């Protein structure tokens, strides 16, 4: 089966511009997560979709970040307008439906590196 | 508060040495899951192991072994006879149910294995 794919792999933009990151989860995975890692720090949770609904968006830094998951398939994460501190690697992960037994394993994409100049 | 601490930022070893990566977690929940992920140079995080809070058995998988101790809230990872291909960033993670499962990661430990 195809893994989690993310696009673009690297984006370089100027402060104030807009960037949209895309994530295609593994087919059939209801859960989709966005995480961010900034310069050698921990991987921080941004938000969690269950199908097309936002289950938890407590990690979204501010209203410059907008995540959508149309039809419960792929997801986009838009940053508008981008600031210098938004630079980092944005990871998308997906997992199967939560049930019994819970596996909890997250399948990650390779990440989208965002550089804001 | 929930937290995962990986105190070792970088470790450098020579091939064939054993190396242990430390992980300490904090949670008041009694039900939780612990994970280790590997991030090779390609960037993608790869799942290595999962442990639930009720299972303190240690596990061995080839050259990898994990030591889970609830008394010290630690979930350490040992690589025996390290190889150059083990060079990567390793993340410890804690997963909790908060209406949905939320996974919290440590800062990662970068392991360099020199030939």
Give keywords.
heterodimer, A: 117 residues, mainly beta, 7-stranded mixed β-sheet, 4-stranded antiparallel β-sheet, 0% helix, 48% strand, B: 115 residues, 6-stranded mixed β-sheet, 56% strand
Report on this model:
The complex is a heterodimer of chains A (117) and B (115). With 117 residues, chain A is mainly β. Chain A has no helices and eleven strands. Helices cover 0% and strands 48% of the residues of chain A. In chain A, β4 (31-37) and β5 form a beta hairpin. Chain A is globular. Chain A starts with a strand and ends with a strand. In chain A, 38% of the residues are buried. The model of chain A has no long low-confidence stretch (mean pLDDT 90). Chain B is mostly beta strands and 115 residues long. Chain B has strands at 3-5, 10-14, 19-21, 24-26, 33-39, 46-52, 59-61, 64-69, 74-79, 88-97, 101-105, 109-114. In chain B, strands 2, 5, 6, 10, 11 and 12 form a six-stranded mixed β-sheet that branches. A four-stranded antiparallel β-sheet of chain B has the order 3-9-8-7, with no helix packed on it. In chain B, strands 1-4 form a two-stranded antiparallel ribbon. Chain B is globular and about 45 Å long. Chain B starts with a strand and ends with a strand.
Uncertain residue segments of chain B: none
Q: Helix fraction of chain B?
A: under 10%
Rg of chain B (CA only): 14 Å
Output the number of helix runs of chain B. Answer: 0
How many distinct helices of chain A?
Answer: 0
What's the assembly state of these chains? heterodimer
Q: pLDDT under 50 segments of chain A (min length 5)?
A: none
Give the helix/strand class of chain B: mainly beta
Helix content of chain A: under 10%
What structural class do helix, strand and pairing data of chain A support? mainly beta
Largest interface: A-B, 29 and 25 residues
């Amino acid at each position: 089966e195809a893994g989690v794919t993310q696009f673009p792999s690297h984006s370089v933009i100027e402060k104030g511009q807009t960037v949209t990151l895309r994530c295609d989860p593994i087919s059939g995975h209801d859960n989709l997560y966005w995480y961010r890692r900034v310069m050698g720090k921990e991987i921080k949770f941004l938000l969690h979709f269950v199908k097309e609904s936002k289950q938890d968006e407590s990690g979204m830094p501010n209203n410059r970040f907008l995540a959508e998951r149309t039809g419960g398939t792929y997801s986009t994460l838009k940053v508008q307008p981008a600031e210098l501190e938004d630079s980092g690697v944005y990871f998308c992960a997906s997992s199967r439906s939560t049930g019994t037994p819970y596996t909890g394993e997250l399948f990650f994409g390779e990440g989208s590196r965002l550089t804001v100049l | 508060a929930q937290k995962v601490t990986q105190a070792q930022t970088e470790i450098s070893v020579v091939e064939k040495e054993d190396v242990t990566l430390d992980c300490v977690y904090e949670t008041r929940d009694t039900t939780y899951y612990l994970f280790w992920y590997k991030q090779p140079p390609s960037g993608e995080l790869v799942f290595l192991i999962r442990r639930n809070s009720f299972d303190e058995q240690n596990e061995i998988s080839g050259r990898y072994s994990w030591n889970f101790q609830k008394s010290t809230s630690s979930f350490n990872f040992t690589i025996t006879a390290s190889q150059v291909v083990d060079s990567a960033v390793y993340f410890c993670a804690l997963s909790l149910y908060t209406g949905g499962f939320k996974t919290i990661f440590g800062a990662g430990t970068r392991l360099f294995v020199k030939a």
